[in-house]
Design a protein that fits this description.
266 residues; alpha+beta; Alpha-Beta Plaits; 4-stranded antiparallel beta sheet; two-stranded antiparallel sheet; 9 helices; elongated; transmembrane; transmembrane helix; membrane; SPOR domain-containing protein
């Protein structure tokens, strides 16, 4: 009995071993194979390699495009200087620099003039100027002072000139203190920085105020530099030359207009 039990136990163990062996064989074929994971270093290289390569290629393409784009903006050489820098300074700028700057100055001017009327608007002042010219053949201009417009004429610097002016006007039918009066006037000092050429021209005009000659005055106006043509009295200078003669009050009124022109430079 004992030997029979041992034989059965041995057979049973043998059967169990065979079953386990078969089970292990099936697991070998049915269990999915696990792939071997790459190392950390290989993962990092793969992760960053593509972006780096893409950035390099993109930079090369973008840089080449910029070089091509800005190469079209190379200025043509208008003087055939073969790539040498071209100066932006014009001949006028060079001449101004060469001329340098000078100070032009006129002291305060005090004199007398003939006043024909005073108005609150330019329209009324212009109308009265035209009336005097047409009715009495007397030259006149209007000037602005503190918001009022004065119709005036004559540049008087002595009692003798005052007497001559009054007599000249009365001989044409004007009545003193009714149609005109003698008035004191003052113009401010002028100081400005100008080129040497402009200074010579302005000084010639200043000299004409005291030593007037219509011929010299006309030439002086014709030589007026462009920068002074915007002066409000510039057009009146030309107008007086065209409309006036060589009479006493004609010249005195041209002198007066010249004084106001120079005073307006300040």
């Amino acid at each position: 009995m004992e030997e029979e039990r041992k034989v059965r136990v041995a057979i049973t163990k043998s059967d169990d071993y065979d079953d386990q062996q078969k089970k292990h064989d099936l697991e070998h074929f049915l269990t999915p194979k696990q792939k071997k994971r790459p190392t950390f270093q290989k993962i990092e290289l793969t992760k960053w390699l593509k972006p780096i390569l893409f950035a390099i290629v993109l930079g090369l393409v973008f840089g080449a495009g910029l070089m091509y784009f800005f190469s079209d903006y190379t200025a043509d050489d208008p003087t055939g200087s073969e790539g040498q820098p071209v100066s932006n300074v014009t001949n006028d700028d060079e001449s101004n620099d060469a001329e340098g700057k000078s100070n032009f100055a006129i002291g305060e001017q005090q004199f007398q003039l003939i006043q024909y009327g005073i108005f609150s608007s330019t329209d009324n002042a212009e109308e009265h100027v035209t009336s005097i010219q047409q009715t009495y053949d007397v030259p006149a201009i209007y000037v602005e002072n503190e918001g009022q417009y004065f119709v005036v004429g004559g540049y008087i610097t002595s009692s003798e000139q005052e007497s001559q002016s009054i007599e000249w006007l009365e001989n044409r039918g004007l009545v003193r203190l009714e149609d005109f009066l003698v008035k004191n006037w003052q113009l401010p000092a002028v100081k400005m920085q100008v080129s040497e050429n402009d200074q010579s021209w302005l000084e010639a005009g200043e000299a004409l105020i005291d030593n007037f000659s219509k011929g010299d005055f006309q030439q002086w106006v014709q030589e007026m530099p462009g920068r002074f043509e915007s002066n409000p009295y510039a057009a009146r200078l030309t107008q007086l030359i065209n409309e006036s003669g060589d009479r006493f009050m004609d010249e005195k009124t041209m002198q007066l207009s010249l004084a106001f022109f120079l005073a307006e430079l300040s």
